[in-house]
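Lecture 7 notes: from sequence to structure.
We start with the chain below.
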Amino acid sequence: MSVLLYLVPVALFLGLLGLAGFIWSLKSGQYEDMDGAARRILLDDDIKDEPSGE
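Predicted structure tokens for the same chain:
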């Protein structure tokens, strides 16, 4: 039972740390453009190098 005296504060601290990280990611704009990267990968903008006649 005495181990709960250590585990409960550690669990609360880790939970608050995760919540703070999530709030920081929201404020820094990590979730602004969720579809942009998914659509960008489908675009065929590959630059093909032409072989030089050397």
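Points to note: The mean pLDDT is 86. The chain is about 55% helix and 0% strand.
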